[in-house]
Amino acid sequence: MESLVVSGLSQHQLRRRVAKGEIFKIARGLYVRRKPEPIEVAQLLHQRWPKVMIAGKSAVEIYSRSAMTPPLEVAYNNRLSSSEWFKAQRTRQRTFYEFKGIPVQNPILAALEVDEKRAITMLEFHYRSVRGKAALERDLSSISRVPAGTKEMLRKVVHGSDSEAERLVVRALRRRGMKVETNHQIGPYFWDIVVGKIAVEIDGYDFHKAEDLATFIKDRWKANDATLRGYTVLRYSGSCVKRHLREVVQQIVGARQRNPDFSSYAHQSVWDWHSLLVGEPYEPIRG
């Protein structure tokens, strides 16, 4: 970064060259030889003010693993004047995340700086692993003052799931008033979705197409184990969720309430109604 920074010029020379577009002013006393990328702005600010952290929209882009877009957004514990290259806010919060050696704002606080849809998408991606729930709770506990509305937004986040099909089912079940656990452990095994004593697994066709013998055996013993522990086991493919979300949810709710509707067509021969099997185009996801 040193080769990018302009040094050795007087204030008059700096102003004149900025006016000519030969160099660019990033912040007070910080000039560069060419237009910098957002990550370069972050690196320059971090070199000058080590406690500066990437924040807001820029942090959301990092957690979403998408390209950073200008202007960079940062947070600092003292006043820092913004420029056309970055927007600064004050913060007293600390962080333990880093990106290329630069501190990055707590993902929950960063999420509050963008629209809710984008925030939830980022948080679901960031907390998608089996340890997602624990990570979310850790990040929430590290915030000294939780902003109003944060918990309401977090209730909409489906954590612990790396499958969009799983998230669709969870959201639909929550709209029905169901309490849903994701990546929930029963015995020695983890299940995609658990609602009361209903254990649900959602698998894509590509997963099973590549399934080896060890996985095939594990899945049988996993289902047997949950059944013997008193759980009702329900399994669906990703295509079932995409094409027949309403029927999937109805079965899970019926099992949870112990009153499945056996008169519905979802309990007729599947080859007579499943759109994939009868070769019909499917409607947009419902539920």
UniProtKB/TrEMBL annotation:
InterPro entries: DUF559, Restrct_endonuc-II-like. Residues 164-253 form the DUF559 domain. It holds the Pfam family DUF559. It comes from the Bacteria. This is DUF559 domain-containing protein.
